């Protein structure tokens, strides 16, 4: 192997380092100026009145559900192809995730499947801007408005993405981001919640800090999900660089798409002309019948040739044991608190066609020209060398 090109790498610079040193010297690790500055910059970037920083993206979703007033047994419609915590966050808040199919071209929540998922208990719809491409928010919002549902954007993979000129995180009632180490920008671990609603923002600030309205009063059942100053110090430096990072991700991803377009076994994912893609991934759909291999085999073989790829999601959420085996309110999932008899032995057609076949090629801003060339050549020669 001439080279090994990794799929994700945080890009950290002098400002991140000097900010961290300053926090260490100051001895102030919580609720200090860096978290506040990060929140202000993030709200400004997304275009919302508020941004509330928390410990990670999963807690961002959980606190959002709680701040919106979700009750035990309430249902939240989620796509079936996403990271687990989109749905486990619902269960942690005593809600029931209802699994919808995905759009066959975009891999995001299929708005035409929402009607099937609707019940009297439906509380919210949670689209995920998967791989950095925004979900079809216009249709999803219309459906939610018609049925009086909240819209929670899971934007954990889509920093800086936009849908019809609105940044993701500003389109639904609430937006949730993650700053995990592999994301377009990182705080190590971290998350943030965006909203225009003053009361919800106030509630979120209390919920993340022990439910306290002031230092003497616990007014609601809260948590300790505050972001530390160390994470905030990274975040405030990273947010300034997001647009530049995303520009580079776009250039690399478009180049990969163009230069590999003639390979019949590797289909580049669609990009709508009314969105700005964040290119968290440079996503491709493997055609197993054309290459004669499964997605997992392609992922493994490419890695052996020095090209690491992302390869997810490989199990639909409705097949994840966590939901089947979960007990709550003294009954099996879905719980007896919920009067509906949703079936969880699902097999949704688009999910079943796609699952296991998605890979993301390396596209992070640290890549050198030689790395990109190596990825292109390795993938182009792949068919001949297996
Ligand atoms: C779509 C999606 N939602 C939620 C999360 C959870 O974020 P975190 O890892 O920060 O808890 C992730 C993963 O990072 C994700 O990809």
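-> sequence recovered:
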């Amino acid at each position: 192997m001439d080279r090994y090109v990794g799929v994700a790498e945080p890009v950290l610079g002098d400002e991140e380092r000097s900010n961290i040193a300053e926090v260490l010297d100051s001895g102030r690790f919580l609720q200090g100026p860096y978290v506040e500055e990060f929140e202000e910059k993030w709200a400004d970037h997304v275009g919302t009145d508020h941004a509330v920083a928390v410990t990670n993206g999963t807690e961002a979703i959980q606190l959002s559900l709680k701040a919106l007033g979700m009750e035990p047994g309430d249902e939240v419609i989620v796509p079936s192809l996403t990271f687990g915590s989109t749905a486990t966050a619902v269960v942690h808040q005593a809600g029931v995730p209802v699994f919808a199919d995905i759009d066959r071209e975009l891999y995001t929540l299929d708005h035409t499947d929402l009607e099937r998922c609707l019940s009297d208990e439906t509380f919210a719809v949670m689209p995920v801007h998967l791989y950095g491409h925004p979900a079809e928010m216009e249709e999803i919002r219309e459906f939610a408005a018609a049925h009086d549902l909240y819209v929670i954007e899971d934007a954990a993979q889509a920093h800086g993405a936009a849908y019809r000129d609105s940044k993701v995180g500003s389109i639904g009632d609430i937006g949730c981001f993650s700053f995990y180490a592999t994301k377009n920008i990182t705080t190590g671990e971290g998350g943030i919640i965006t909203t225009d609603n003053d009361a919800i923002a106030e509630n979120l600030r209390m919920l993340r800090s022990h439910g306290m309205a002031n230092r003497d009063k616990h007014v609601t059942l809260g948590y300790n999900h505050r972001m530390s100053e160390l994470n905030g110090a990274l975040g405030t430096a990273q947010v300034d660089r997001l647009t530049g990072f995303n520009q580079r991700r776009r250039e690399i991803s478009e180049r990969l798409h163009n230069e590999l377009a003639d390979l019949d076994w590797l289909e580049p994912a669609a990009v709508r002309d009314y969105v700005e893609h964040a290119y968290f991934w440079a996503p491709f759909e493997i055609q197993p019948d054309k290459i004669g291999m499964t997605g997992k085999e392609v992922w493994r073989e490419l890695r052996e040739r020095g090209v690491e790829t992302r390869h997810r999601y490989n199990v639909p959420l409705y097949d994840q044991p966590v939901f089947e085996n979960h007990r709550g309110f003294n009954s099996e999932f879905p719980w007896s608190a919920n009067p509906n008899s949703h079936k969880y032995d699902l097999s949704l057609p688009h999910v079943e066609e796609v699952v296991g076949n998605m890979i993301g090629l390396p596209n992070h801003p640290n890549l050198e020209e030689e790395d990109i060339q190596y990825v292109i050549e390795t993938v182009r020669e792949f068919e001949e060398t297996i």
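The CA atoms of residues 105 and 270 lie 6 Å apart.
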